[in-house]
Amino acid sequence: MKEPLRITVTGAAGQIGYAMLFRIASGEMLGTDQPVILQLLEIPPAMNALEGVVMELQDCAFPLLRGVVSTSQPEEAFSGADFVLLVGARPRGPGMERKDLLEANGAIFTGQGKAINDYASKNVKVLVVGNPANTNCLIAVNNAKDLNPEQFSSMTILDHNRAIALLAERTGVHIDEVQNLAVWGNHSATMFPELLSASVGDTPALELVTFDWYRDQFIPKVQQRGAEIIRARGSSSAASAANAAIQHMRLWSLGTRTITSMGIVSCGDYDITEGIVYSFPVTCGAGKIEIDKSRSLDDFCVERMRLTERELLEERDAIKHLL
Ligand code: NAX
Predict the structure, then answer these.
(1) Residue in 128, 129, 139 to alter for ligand 1 test, most ligand atoms within 8 A of Cβ
(2) Residue 93: count of CB within 10 angstroms of its CB
(3) Is the torsion defined by CA of 290, 136, 82, 240 positive or negative?
(4) pLDDT tops 90 at residue 172
(5) pLDDT of residue 131
(6) Confidence of residue 94 (pLDDT cuts 50, 70, 90)
(7) What pLDDT was estimated at residue 315?
(8) pLDDT reading at 99 higher than 90
C-alpha cells in the first residue's frame, strides 16, 4: 500500500466542501490505491458544522481515509500538505463593492499563501477555487516566496466543462467528441470560451455552428452559467464545482494529453502579461501543467483575450500592495 498523501481543503464545511470531501476520501481524486489524510480548515463560527462533516466522513468507513484533521489554525491545516484546495473565501456581502471583496479576500489569501509556504510539503500543488479565484491565486502565489509559481493554479475547468456540454448539446453529439476547446482569462463574466481551435469529431466546431451563435449565445451563456444556476437553484454551483476541482487535481497529478483549461501564472505566452493568473488551454504531464502553444488565433480571439486580461490587470492593481 502507498504512503498516505495529505490533502488540505479550506472552507470544508461549505457547500463545495461538502460535495467534494466524500469523493476525495473514496479515491476519486488520486486513485483507488492512494490512501489520503484530510486536513480541513474552517473559520471558528463554522467549526461545529465541520464537526458534523467529520462525523459523516467517519460514518462512511472509507478504506482509503487514514485520518481527518479539523482545525481553524492554518499552520495545522497546511502542515505537510501534498495537495491544497483553497475553497473557502469571503462572499460578497450587502453593500460590498468589488474592491472591498478583493480586499477581504486579499487578507485571507495573503495569510494562507504564507502558511502554505511555511508548513506545506515543498512539492505541494495548490488549486484556488474561492472567488475571485484568479486574483486570490495571484495573492497566494506571491506570498509563498519559497515555492515555484508552477505549484499554484486556479480553477476554470468548470467553465471548460460547461462550454463542452453546451457545444455538444448544440451539435447533437456526445461530449467525448468535443476536443480542443479552451477557456481563456478570468473566471468571471469576461472569460473567453474559444471555439476557433475546437473540433467536434473530425469537423472544426465553427463549421457546425454559426459565428452569430458562437458570439451572441455560446460565449455569454458560458460566462453567465454560474448566475443561471443561482437563479434556478437558489444557491451557487456546488456539485459541479466540486467535480471540477477533483478533476483539476486528478489531471494535474496523474496527467492528461487531452486539452483542458486551468488558470496559471502567465510567463508571457500568447502575449499575456507576465505574472498574472490567466486561464490557458493546457495539458498535464509528469505533475506539470503545460500550455498548448500550438493555437493560431484570429482578431476576434485576440480582442476577447485582451478584454479578460484587462480585467485581471485591474484586479491586480487593486491588490498590488499585497504582492
Ligand atoms: P460556502 O459559503 O458554502 O462555503 C465557503 C466556506 O468557506 C464557508 O464554510 C466559510 O466558513 C469558509 N471560509 C470563509 N473564510 C475562510 C477562511 N479564511 N478559511 C477557511 N474557511 C473559510 O461557499 P461555496 O459554495 O462552498 O463556494 C466556495 C467558493 O468557491 C466561493 O468563493 C465561490 O464563489 C467559489 N466558486 C468558484 C468557482 C470556480 O469555478 N472557480 C465555481 C463555484 C464557486 O462559485
Answers:
(1) 129
(2) 9
(3) negative
(4) yes
(5) 94
(6) confident
(7) 95
(8) no
Residue 168 has what pLDDT? 98
Which atom of ligand 1 is nearest to 111's Cα?
18
CATH of 5-154, one of 3.30.420.40, 3.40.1490.10, 3.40.50.720, 3.40.50.970: 3.40.50.720
Class of domain 157-322: alpha beta
In our burial notation (b when 16+ CB lie closer than 10 A, e otherwise), range 30-57 reads: beeebbbbbbbbbeeebeeebeebbeeb
Q: In this structure, which residue's CA is closest to atom 41 in ligand 1?
A: 129
**pLDDT for 6:** 98
pTM for this structure? 0.97
Domain ranges of the chain: 5-154, 157-322
Answer yes or no: same fold for 5-154 and 157-322: no
**Per residue in 141-154, is it b (16+ CB within 10 Å) or e — as a string?**
bbbbeebebebbbb
Distance CA 37, CA 240 (A): 23
Q: Which tens digits make up the pLDDT trace of 8-43? A: 999 999 999 999 999 999 999 999 999 999 999 999
140 lines ligand 1 (CB under 6 A): no
Catalytic residue among 160, 187, 248, 321: 187
Q: Whose CA is nearest to atom 23 of ligand 1?
A: 14
Confirm or reject: Cβ of 87 under 6 Å from ligand 1.
Answer: yes
> Integer distance in angstroms from the first to the last C-alpha of the chain?
41
Which residue puts its alpha carbon closest to atom 43 of ligand 1?
241
174: annotated active-site residue: no
* Closest Cα to atom 6 of ligand 1: 11
